[in-house]
Each structure stands twice: as structure tokens, then as C-alpha cells.
Recover the amino acids of this structure.
């Protein structure tokens, strides 16, 4: 709990933007997944880096933890306060600070969401490509090293954050990276902070790499006789060097849920959803080459979406797949799994996972960013049913262990939070202790998002 | 100096692969640039990770520094021993351990050079794209976060190292990263070690990302009326989203040196050297679009190299530019500068640098990877002339300060070593102290490549 002097200092610093109101605390204890924790002790809504720095100094003086909060869309409890503390809600730091079109760079505050950024960029001919589906905050996306549907072409947050302003434990403010495209000057602090989930500091500004809006875009869905045929087609596509902008797998159960929820009429079979970016001629060539390749793997029923409205409809359906799947079992909540394996092991990982789920009492449609080897099962659990929740968590753990056995990782894009901290030693071995030493060096009192990720 | 017990332990561990012979020590005191230091106390040639681990344990017990050595091509004294110590020469750890074509991944030892790797990959249809010109070792390239001519398309070592095996101070061995394309599992230790120049540990194995050999390749040289016209053309090219594989600037003095050295007949004017990768149709389209664009900036005299032998000749000339420039002033040695700025500031940075060099008594041709905003001046100094060396070092310092003033970095790809350690606070401010805390956490006794990069 916060001491009276801490309460007084927080109130003096933030005034009406400091809250211990029940409704505010409860809002910041919500999670999109089954991971849960008690509400934080208080919530603050900073508006400037200076306020975040002063807050970190108070945290150091009074010994209370700080937990960053962006849009509340994370899936492993990153923004929850399992050890109590003060939640730092960045929704008031949501401005685009600068756009440099010649450098293809935007400087933004951490509370800005990815959709708001792309809306602001529309007239520039540029866009920010990392697209995890949810309208997450950019600070949160950097903190969790988010990726998504367009990562096969444009990379993850690791690849698209050029620099950061970070408030360290104690209140010191550092700037990492520059506006230049690359640098060989010292340790990559930008890359260290990206994916550190607020355990090393709080991000107060991001310098992001933008990309040119493609001149032409073409999307398609096509059906395959089996998941493994679809995966073999993906491998061949990548090896051929076709520059896919998106290549997504939906298994048959996901297709059924998406058809029902988004009023599509995809054939009842495993599907790949595709997108090509480029000049009109190159997009046409890519589509033709993909079509020839896919035919060899038994693909049929290509549905092309050339018009923007058709494309939007297709990708909106993909992005709503999580809600569509949840809606397929009324009263359900979900354990959303996330593993990533080498492409060569993807078919095996998918087959073993599907068999494991089929042998359980739970429905668990599978979908994924298969160009990256990354996939999710949405394990549906009756709300409040502890036995089903335990089954789901066992399935999820086995998925992670399977990914490790196949040379992959326990999370491709959702991160660790406290949902997966227990699996970290299995992935990293002695490297996990090295992470703990870095944490100790930068946050010796353990005030930055404690209880997560590191030893 | 090494104590007698240290000498005995090293000799017992390495036998004939431990040397204190004058010639061996002198060879490991050589540097490609003006940065110099006395020879190390001894050199060892490990053959296994276990030997490197045992060596680090001896280093910890006896308190002697360890300095990694790859191919000796670094430019800022990274592999020299300014504080003495034992040089770890990785030339006997030069094997390709595995190639996984489906995953487009190779696992290699650190002493393997990039050309040897690409020779080994030839039959697979894959290649490793990071190309700094010199035939550097891959461990050294990872340690210095190397990049080069193909980085505008394929990225730097940061983007192409998926995982590492690292021996930490004291001898602990960690593995970072996995064979999967991406991960959100914890701190990016791979990214932290890449670019850390051996100050956090010694790389004993690398998992590298490969790319498909392009189906079609086309190269060209074209002349521009001025450096700024060439740079404006580069900016327009990038904004248009043309996927250039290489786009290199040579100023007029560099063109003259290259013509003389490599028997080319490029027109005496600033040149862009270009390369396009893709399908035959897309390469043809890219070349046509570039040609239209470049004409608007006054480009003329396109020389296309469609045949492999012509392309090889053109890029060999580019890669030998450093030697060509040195040959243009007999008896000279060089200070090779390296800065990187936001593309929008590139024309200004180049103009101010050229003016600064023109006002000095030294010749300093300029060339660079202008698609990244990265360029070099080769400042030629009469060998042994201290006054000229001082002028060159002043010019280099002003280049770095100019890059910072324009929002860039003091090094795009050559790294810090001890040549540029003094400039680190100016670039990183409080972030430099944070780097020092990380160094202290992972190497508390300061045994890993001491005296470089960090406070």
C-alpha cells in the first residue's frame, strides 16, 4: 500500500490526474486474457516526460512499483500489478510530435495508438506497418516487441523503432538511437528496451521508421486441402523470394467462426490470406507466380480482393478472428497461445498442437502469421470454470514446450508478462540469469514492473 | 604482463596453440587504420567453445584481459590490446556448422569469413547479404555491427543475426535467440551482444539469416552534375519505394582513383553505383523507373552491367576504392572516417565535410552507402607525419560532431573501438552511463576487451 507521504507527493505532482477511485483501479486490473491480478494501488495520468521522471524519483524515494499502461490490449498481464504499485496510464501522452517525410520517420508519444498514427500519416504517403490486430498503443507495442500480419515483409517493433526516450528507475531520462537509419555506436539500448516490457524503464517517446504506402495492393484468400499443404506452400513461397506483404493461415474452425461472425463465404477448408504490395506490374506478377505455386499444393477457390473495400473487409475479418472465435462459444473466455518455430518445423508444430487440442475437451481454433512461423490457438474456456482453465493452461504450456523442442520460442509476439515468466529458464538457460543481472544493474530496487519476465 | 602461473595454465590449455612469439604478437598489433597499440602479451588459437570458456575462467582467475580477433580488418582498433592481455584469434574456429535451407539459416563459427560462407552456400540458392567490402570474419562483423553496400535492402548484422553462443566473463556459456524468425521472449541479448565489440563476452557461434539469391540482378553506374543532385536522386528513389539492393555514392576524386586503379572509364563526375535484385520483369521495371527518376536530377551516361563478369568488375572496383584511394598518394596511410546522418541531412553533411577537407592540406575522397545516409572520407596522411595525422584526426572529429548536430551518429558501421570512445558521451549522454552499468553487470572485473567503448 502507498504510505501517506507517498500519497501526498503523488497528489501534489499529479493533482486530479492522480486517482485511487475504485472504478479507475478496476479498469486498470482488466486483461484481455485469463491472466489476472488485483487492482493497482493508484493510477496516474502523466502528460510530460518531466512528470514521468518526477514520478520515478518518487517511486525510488518511497519504494512503490511503477507499471506502464498503454491501451490495455496485452495478453500476458504485462500491464497488471501482481505486486501492487502505481499504474502509469499513458493515454494523455498520445501526440504525434513530428513527422519527417524525407527521412520516413515519425516521433510520437507512447500513448498514441497505431491506428491514430496511420490516420495522421494518411496525407504523407507513408505508413507505420506493424499491425498486431488490436489497436494497441505504440509504447505498449514497443515494450512487448509486438509484430503481426505485416511482419513477414516489414519486420517487428524491433525493426521499426529507431530510437527511444526512456525514464529509468530513479528518474534519469536517457535517449537511445538517432534519426539515422543505422549506427554502430555502442550497445543497442533501443533494442534492449524494446521487448523489456517496462521492467527496465518507461518509454516516453518513440522515433519510428515509416514506409511508403504501396502504389498497388492486392489481397486474396485461397483454400487448401490441409493445413500441411498450406504450410508447404508458404515455405515454397518464401524460398522463391516472393515478397509477400502478408501471409496468414486460418484453420477450418477459424474459417467457420470468421464466416459466421463477419458474414464471409470462405470455403470450409484451411485458408491462406495473402497480400501483395508493389508497383501495379510487380503486384500482378507476384499474384500470378503465387497462383502457379499454390496450384501445385492443391490450392483452389482463389477469392481476389482488388478493391480497397473488399480488402478492408477481408482483413477486418482476420483482425476480428479472435472475437469471432470467442463468439462461437457464448459465455467463453480464452487462453490465447502464441508460439513461433522455424518454418521447417511449422507443419509438425501445427499438427501436434491440433492433435493435442483435439484430444482435450476444449475447442481451440488455430490461426497464425505463418510466414514468420508464428501461430496461435484460441483455447476457449467457460467463464469461471477452473477445471477448463487448468486444461487450457496445460495445453498452452505443452505448446510452448513443443516450440522449444522444435528450435523455436515460447512467444513470437505476445511477450512474457507474468503469464509466461515460468517458462523463461527453459528457453534461455543461463541467459535468463544474464537478463537478471542487466535488470539488477538498471533497476537495483526492482521498482519497474516487478514480478515479471526476469528472475 | 602474464604471471608465471597464468603462462603455465595457458600453455597447458592450448599447447602449441598458445604463443608469445614476437612475430605472432606483432601480427596481432596490426591495424588497417591509424589507430595503434602495443602488441598483446600472448595469442591463443582456440578450436572449441569449451576452450574459450576455460580461457575465460583463467582470465577471471589470473586477471588478464581477453581481446577477440577475427580477420584483423576492423578500423577503430577493436582487436588491439591497448591495456595488454591475451588476444583470442578465432581463425581456427572457421567452420560452417549447419545450413538449414528450408529455414534459410546457417550456423557458423566466428572465424569464418563472409566470402567463405557465401562460397559454401553457392549450391543452395541462398546467400548471406551483409557486405562490408573487406573479407571480415562473421564474428567480427557481428561484434562491430557491420553493414555495407547491400544494407539498404538487406539490413545490418543487427538484422541478420538470429542467435549467438557467447562466452561471458568468468567462462559461463549462454545461447541467445532461437532458429525462429522472431521472438518476444525477454531481453534481446542477441541485439545487445551484436555491436558490443567483445566488451560483454566472446562470440563462439552465430545463427545467421540467409536470403534467396535473386533470380535476376542488374547493376549500373551513372554520373550526376553534383553530389547534391545525386543525393536528391537517392532521396526520391527511397521515397518512391524502389527496392534498391545497393545505391552507392562516389565523389569525383574517388571516381578518379577508382578509374586509375581498376582500369574503369567512368566519366569524371560524381557517380551513383546501383544494383537491382528481383525477378527479370521486376528488375527491368525498377531499372526503367530509376532511369526516369534520375534523368530529372541531371543523370547521364548510364553504364549498365547486365553480365555477371561486368557486375563483378564494377563492384570489385567499388570494394577496392579504399586501396585505390591509398594508391593515389604513394606512401600514405589513412584515417577512414565513418558517419551516418538522416537522409534529409545527407546533402548538407556531405557539402560541409567536403568544404572542411578542401580547406585542409589533406586529400580526402568521399564515398558512401548513401541509401542509409552513411558515408566515409578517406583522409590520406603521409606515413609517419604527426602533423598531418593530427589534421586528419581533427577533420574526423569535426565530421562526427557534425553528424551529431544533424541528428545522426558518430559511426554508421565501423564501430567505436578505442578510436572513438571519447565521442560516446556526446552521442549518448546519460545513456553512456547506462551502457557502463550493463558492462559492469556482465563483466564486473573489466576483463573483456577493456579500455574500449564504455566508461
Amino acid at each position: 500500500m502507498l504510505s501517506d507521504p507517498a500519497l501526498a507527493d503523488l497528489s501534489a505532482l499529479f493533482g486530479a490526474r492522480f486517482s485511487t477511485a475504485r472504478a479507475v483501479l478496476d479498469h486498470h486490473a482488466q486483461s484481455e486474457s485469463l491472466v489476472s491480478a488485483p487492482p493497482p494501488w493508484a493510477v496516474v495520468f502523466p502528460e510530460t516526460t518531466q512528470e514521468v521522471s518526477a514520478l520515478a524519483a518518487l517511486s525510488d524515494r518511497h519504494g512503490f512499483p511503477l507499471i506502464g499502461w498503454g491501451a490495455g490490449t496485452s495478453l500476458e498481464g504485462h500491464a497488471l500489478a501482481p505486486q501492487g504499485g502505481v499504474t502509469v496510464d499513458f493515454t494523455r501522452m498520445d501526440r504525434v510530435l513530428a513527422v519527417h517525410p524525407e527521412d520516413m520517420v515519425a516521433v510520437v508519444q507512447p500513448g498514441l495508438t497505431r491506428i491514430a498514427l496511420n490516420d495522421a500519416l494518411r496525407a504523407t504517403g507513408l505508413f507505420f506497418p506493424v499491425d498486431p490486430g488490436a489497436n494497441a498503443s505504440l509504447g505498449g507495442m514497443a515494450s512487448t516487441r509486438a509484430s503481426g500480419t505485416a511482419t513477414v515483409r516489414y519486420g517487428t517493433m524491433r525493426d521499426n523503432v529507431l530510437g527511444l526516450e526512456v525514464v529509468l528507475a530513479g528518474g534519469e531520462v536517457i535517449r537511445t538511437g538517432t534519426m539515422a537509419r543505422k549506427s554502430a555506436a555502442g550497445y543497442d539500448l533501443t533494442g534492449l528496451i524494446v521487448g523489456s516490457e517496462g521492467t527496465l524503464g518507461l518509454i516516453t517517446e518513440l522515433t519510428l521508421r515509416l514506409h511508403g504506402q504501396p502504389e498497388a495492393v492486392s489481397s486474396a484468400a485461397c483454400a487448401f486441402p490441409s493445413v500441411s499443404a498450406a504450410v508447404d506452400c508458404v515455405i515454397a513461397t518464401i524460398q522463391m523470394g516472393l515478397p509477400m506483404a502478408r501471409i496468414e493461415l486460418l484453420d477450418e474452425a477459424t474459417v467457420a467462426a470468421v464466416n459466421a461472425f463477419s458474414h464471409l463465404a470462405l470455403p470450409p477448408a484451411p485458408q491462406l490470406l495473402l497480400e501483395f504490395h508493389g508497383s501495379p506490374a510487380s503486384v500482378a506478377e507476384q499474384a500470378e507466380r503465387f497462383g502457379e505455386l499454390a496450384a501445385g499444393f492443391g490450392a483452389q477457390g482463389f477469392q481476389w480482393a482488388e478493391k480497397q473495400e473488399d480488402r478492408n473487409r477481408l482483413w477486418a475479418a482476420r483482425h476480428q478472428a479472435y472475437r469471432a472465435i470467442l463468439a462461437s462459444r457464448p459465455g467463453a473466455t480464452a487462453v490465447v497461445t502464441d508460439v513461433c518455430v522455424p518454418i521447417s518445423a511449422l507443419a509438425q508444430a501445427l499438427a501436434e498442437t491440433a492433435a493435442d487440442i483435439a484430444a482435450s475437451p476444449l475447442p481451440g481454433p488455430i490461426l497464425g502469421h505463418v510466414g514468420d512461423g508464428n501461430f496461435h490457438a484460441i483455447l476457449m474456456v467457460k467463464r469461471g470454470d477452473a477445471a477448463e482453465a487448468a486444461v487450457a493452461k496445460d495445453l498452452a504450456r505443452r505448446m510452448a514446450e513443443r516450440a522449444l523442442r522444435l528450435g523455436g520460442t515460447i512467444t513470437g509476439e505476445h511477450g512474457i508478462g507474468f503469464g509466461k515468466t515460468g517458462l523463461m529458464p527453459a528457453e534461455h538457460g543461463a541467459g535468463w540469469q544474464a537478463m537478471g543481472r542487466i535488470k539488477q544493474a538498471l533497476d537495483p530496487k526492482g521498482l519497474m514492473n516487478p514480478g515479471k519476465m526476469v528472475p
Observations:
- Residues 386-405 of chain A form the longest helix (20 residues).
- The mean pLDDT of chain A is 95.
- Chain A has four domains: 4-91, 94-212, 216-322, 329-417.
